[in-house]
């Protein structure tokens, strides 16, 4: 291995995070909406893997070739923690001028706001699901209570028949509850499936946009290279023409 290969190998293993690295990382976090998924879940892990993969393939800023999702997640947690601490300090320091925000600050602030919205939305959704389940349960209990009331009002009904009817009503209640639970789970699965399809479509659109951007950049670089080559060729031709004229003038003398 020569010195240049050895240097590249060492560079791929060690990398110093800069503000440019952090900006690209936050762009990916914002694009893939990692904050919408609970930490430690399979979906969150998949998105962090995707972010690490995208950063490894970045052409504008070099990331190390073995960049892992753990390193990416750890770095984001670090800069996000610093940003939140700075926010607390700025809020506490009333009357002190706040430094102007750059792109990284804007990205972190946007992510923080979206994360708070996602948490609030998840909490609201959980509350609605709980309320729906409670409503179904109350309706079933209410029907059961009405049945019991009708039975108690009918005092001439034989005890044996009452016992049999009570068992049937309990069985009916359990069946209705099972059907209600099943319908609730099916509806929940439909909602989740629709959300996943929407996310997949958004991700595909973002990926297509990124690919188009990279393709346009590549074409622009190729065109610029062709223009440079053409300019060099023209300069060489002009130089040769001038040399030819100079030689003719010297030969006449």
Automatic annotation (TrEMBL):
Biased composition (Basic and acidic residues): 151-160
Coiled coil (residue ranges): 177-206
Region Disordered: start-end pairs: 140-170
Record key words, sorted: Coiled coil
Protein name, as recorded: Myb-like domain-containing protein
Domain of life: Eukaryota
């Amino acid at each position: 291995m020569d010195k240049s290969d050895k240097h590249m190998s060492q560079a791929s293993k060690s990398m110093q995070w800069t503000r440019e690295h952090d900006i690209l990382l936050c762009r990916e976090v914002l694009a893939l909406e990692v904050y919408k998924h609970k930490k430690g879940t399979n979906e969150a892990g998949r998105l962090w893997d995707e972010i690490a993969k995208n950063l490894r393939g970045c052409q504008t800023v070099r990331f190390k070739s073995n960049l892992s999702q753990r390193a990416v997640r750890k770095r984001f947690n670090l800069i996000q923690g610093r940003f939140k601490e700075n926010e607390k300090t700025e809020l506490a320091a009333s009357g002190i001028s706040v430094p102007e925000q750059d792109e990284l600050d804007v990205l972190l602030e946007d992510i923080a706001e979206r994360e708070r919205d996602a948490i609030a939305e998840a909490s609201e959704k959980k509350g609605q699901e709980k309320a729906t389940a409670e409503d179904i349960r109350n309706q079933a209990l209410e029907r059961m209570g009405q049945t019991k009331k009708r039975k108690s009002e009918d005092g001439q009904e034989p005890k044996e028949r009452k016992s049999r009817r009570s068992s049937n009503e309990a069985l009916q209640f359990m069946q209705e509850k099972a059907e209600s639970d099943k319908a609730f789970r099916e509806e929940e699965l439909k909602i989740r499936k629709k959300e996943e399809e929407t996310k997949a479509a958004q991700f595909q659109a973002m990926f297509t946009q990124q690919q188009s951007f990279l393709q346009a950049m590549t074409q622009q670089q190729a065109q610029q290279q062709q223009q440079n080559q053409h300019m060099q060729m023209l300069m060489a031709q002009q130089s040769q023409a001038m040399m030819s004229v100079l030689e003719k003038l010297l030969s006449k003398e």
